[in-house]
Amino acid sequence: MIDQAEALEIVLAHSHSLGEEEVPLSSSIGRILAEDIRADRPFPPFDRVCMDGIAIPFQAYDEGRRAFTKAAMAAAGDPQKELKDQEQCIEIMTGAILPKGADTIVRYEDLKETADGFEITTEVKQGQNIHYRGEDTNQGDSILKHGLRVKAMDVNILASVGKSSVWVRKQPKVAVISSGEELVPIDQQPEAHQIRRSNVHMLVARLDELGIQAHEYHIRDKESDIRKWVVDILNSHDVLLLSGGVSKGKFDLIPQVLEELGVEKRFHFVKQRPGKPLWFGTMENKRVFAFPGNPVSTLACFHAYFVPWLYASLGLEYQAIKVKLSTDVQFRPDLTYFAQARIWQDEQAVTWAEVKHGGGSGDMISPSTMDGFVILPRGKEEYKAGEVYLFLPFHPLCQG
Prior knowledge:
Layout: E1 2-3, H1 4-13, E2 20-24, E3 37-38, E4 48-49, E5 53-56, H2 58-62, E6 67-74, E7 88-92, E8 104-107, E9 111-113, E10 117-120, E11 130-131, E12 142-144, H3 152-160, E13 165-169, E14 174-179, E15 183-184, E16 195-196, H4 199-209, E17 215-219, H5 223-236, E18 239-243, H6 254-260, E19 264-268, E20 270-273, E21 279-283, E22 286-291, H7 295-313, E23 321-325, E24 329-330, E25 336-345, E26 351-355, E27 372-376, E28 382-383, E29 388-393
Helix pairs in contact: 1-7
């Protein structure tokens, strides 16, 4: 049995890039950019009008003119118009190109409409209400860096520079596998000795939050079934996440079968609670995480090991949040404790964690009311209020 920090170090040592792929813009949200995005032209690409109103030559206003005759109308999308007479204005809409001969926009709210034009009713500053060409960025400037996780506003930028497709880092193909004779489909009424398959659905949902569309499987606790299915699934996936069948019971056959199939065991059993029977192995570029079957154990191992592995494989730095304990916590076993907790920030932006012990590793209800796990390292029996520890959020995407 190894220490939790050593187990994580081994997992991270076996992270690896899965390459790159080109995806349609519509499929890029949440993906990691594998290219720098550069502006294909200045932004804005022209002197852009920012308010509805009139375009005037400021010199005429500066010389005392307040009433201007309307010469034309300009809307967004119209070719650039030209103002040739200092006594005239062009009525103009937001998004239109600033007309030649004009250098100032006066909004409707500062105008009084007359029979043949407009009269200015307030003080005007030269160049007001204009978004000048190249003010945001120049042609060729880097506007989105490789390694960025694409957000909705980034899609806006990608579309603006004409990127109908984009190069991103490949996500792993992940299979989520449950095992156990006691598990039945969620649409089936379980007998007294049975439970519904919930862990796989939780893992699939967690993966979906990370932008990974996983495939779901269930295997019976029979060596022949495990052997057949695992071989097939390994051949078509990069990562296997198994839930159940990894402890010391007579029907916990997963570790034995995996090793017989050529998956090299990197470790089995970790000095931690929950999740002590965690098994991790590799076969060429395949990675296998075999989690204990209790819900909280599965959840803890997923966030403590798979999520950091995924970040590292995508070239990202996974940073657990630092939190302060709000109360003393006692935990006597010589194990690292993944303590469920709620977190909040005080007025000084310090993040605090309130530990809630829940009903043990089989309690599937309490995690739904928590924000994540505080990692309390082994070697102590009491963890004092105000001490700082690392926190694994249930929703790591909030880290950016």
